[in-house]
Amino acid sequence: MKVLIVGANGQIGKHLVSFIQDHNDLEAKVMIRKEEQAASFKELGAETAVVDLEEDVQAIAKAAEGVDAIVFTAGSGPNTGADKTILVDLDGAVKTMKAAEEAGVKRFVMISSFDTTREAIQSAPSSFAPYVAAKHYADEWLKSTDLDYTIIHPGALSNDDGIGKVNAASRVERNEIPREDVASVIVATLENDATIGKEFQVVTGTNSIKDEIDSL
């Protein structure tokens, strides 16, 4: 399976590319914003496509040609304003879904926020609410498509080393999770077609990643 990773230069994305390139049945194609970001991915043997998420649908669809799945793990980042949040986390996500449809790619894995319910938007601090709202509507748009989607809602992200143990379900108690383990969860999701049409929260826990994903 060839996987286009949108947001490959992010912290989760970098772990994911490395894991996929070490996988016997998966192959990574990375979508990055700048050519200077390409060197480390080329060293891993990954194909690169330089496309900014603020470009049009056709540019993203061109990057998606020839792949079997798309993982959307891009984000505007914590230091941008609400305008970039809308353009990347919402519009960029929706354009990527449309690009998947144009390119004939059915499998789509979305890395969302831990809680994107309407209640989460209403209760979020004013500085965080635009991000939650963007993720909420991106998730809703994805669920309205005919794509074979999975939506992953990770807990608070950390840069700790992964431990390979998580709790995953439609609702779990809030906790942290290393970005490295989120990348492993994505790989397990891609390996398991039973995750299609599902969304789940995932945090550090007590069970192996494979067992938790298989039990969803």
Automatic annotation (TrEMBL):
Pfam family, one: NAD_binding_10
All residue ranges annotated as the NAD(P)-binding domain in the record: 7-192
Matches recorded under CDD domains: SDR_a5 (cd05243)
Domain of life: Bacteria
Entry coiled-coil feature ranges: none
Name assigned to this protein: Sugar epimerase
Organism placement in taxonomy: Bacteria, Bacillati, Bacillota, Bacilli, Bacillales
